[in-house]
């Protein structure tokens, strides 16, 4: 069977095995291409939601930053420090959300360029690893998307299993995790740069050494 047939519809070669029959009892078979496209659509929706979250974080940051400046103008270092502490937490959240958004954009781009059965394993395995690694952080930043994140992870995992069974592909989890780590590190570097460009620097002397280290972590 050629790739096009495997890609566009479920396999119909020698009839379902035990695993196939069990899988069919819990879900209706769907072409691999359709499942990947569905997952990618959900990822794009999630990226849009994260964009809105970043806007809210930016607005919150602006309000708190004004509190720091106003307190310093009044020589009220105690309240300035309190505002600065809150600002640190907001910016840590902003960096995490931005990193997640950038990583998801990279995953979405990869999903949209799959043209070969063999690419499914090398693309989806790192994608699943990336999504799972950011799930806890996103649950905090965007609790309403927790269910959707789980659905995306489950859908991609299902496609990965189906593709492996269909094409007899072997999964290299070490390579997948290494690729996922690279995606997250690159996203973190860009997120850090965006934070520097988008958020005003906190006045010197307000942050403790630990807070400074948290912001640069």
Separation of the first and last Cα atoms: 50 Å
By DSSP (H or I, 4+ residues per run), the number of helices equals 8
Structural class: mainly alpha
Q: Kindly state the mean pLDDT as a whole number?
A: 81
Low-confidence stretches: 10-19, 21-29
Helix content: over 70%
Give a quick account of the main beta sheet: strands, pairing sense, barrel closure: none
User: Approximately how much beta-strand content do the residues carry?
Assistant: under 5%
> Based on CA inertia axes, which overall geometry fits?
elongated
The ordered H/E elements are: HHHHHHHH
Give the tally of β-strands.
0
Number of domains: 1
Q: Quaternary status of these chains? A: single chain
Rg from C-alpha positions? 22 Å
Describe what is shown at a glance.
The protein is 80% helix and 0% strand.
Descriptive tags:
217 residues; 8 helices; elongated
Please tell me about this protein's structure:
The protein is an all-alpha fold. It has one domain. The chain has helices at residues 3-8, 18-26, 32-73, 77-111, 117-141, 146-167, 173-198, 209-216. The radius of gyration is 22 Å and the shape is elongated. It starts with a helix and ends with a helix.
Describe how the helices and strands are arranged.
Elements: H1 3-8, H2 18-26, H3 32-73, H4 77-111, H5 117-141, H6 146-167, H7 173-198, H8 209-216
Helix pairs in contact: 3-4, 3-6, 4-5, 4-7, 4-8, 5-6, 5-7
């Amino acid at each position: 069977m050629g790739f096009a047939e495997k890609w566009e519809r479920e396999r119909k070669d020698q009839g379902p095995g035990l695993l196939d029959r069990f899988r069919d009892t819990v879900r209706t078979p769907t072409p691999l291409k359709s499942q990947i496209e569905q997952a990618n659509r959900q990822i794009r929706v999630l990226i849009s939601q994260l964009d809105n979250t970043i806007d809210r974080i930016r607005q919150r940051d602006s309000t708190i930053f004004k509190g720091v400046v106003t307190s310093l103008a009044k020589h009220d270092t105690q309240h300035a420090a309190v505002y600065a502490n809150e600002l640190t937490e907001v910016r840590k959240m902003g960096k995490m959300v931005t990193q997640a958004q950038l990583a998801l954009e990279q995953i979405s781009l990869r999903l949209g360029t799959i043209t070969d059965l063999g690419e499914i394993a090398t693309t989806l395995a790192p994608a699943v690893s990336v999504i799972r690694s950011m799930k806890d952080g996103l649950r905090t930043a965007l609790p309403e998307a927790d269910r959707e994140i789980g659905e995306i992870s489950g859908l991609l995992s299902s496609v990965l299993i189906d593709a492996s069974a269909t094409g007899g592909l072997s999964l290299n989890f070490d390579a997948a995790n290494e690729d996922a780590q690279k995606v997250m590190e690159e996203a973190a570097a860009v997120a850090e740069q965006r934070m520097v460009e988008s958020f005003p620097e906190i006045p010197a002397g307000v942050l403790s050494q630990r807070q400074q280290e948290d912001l640069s972590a």
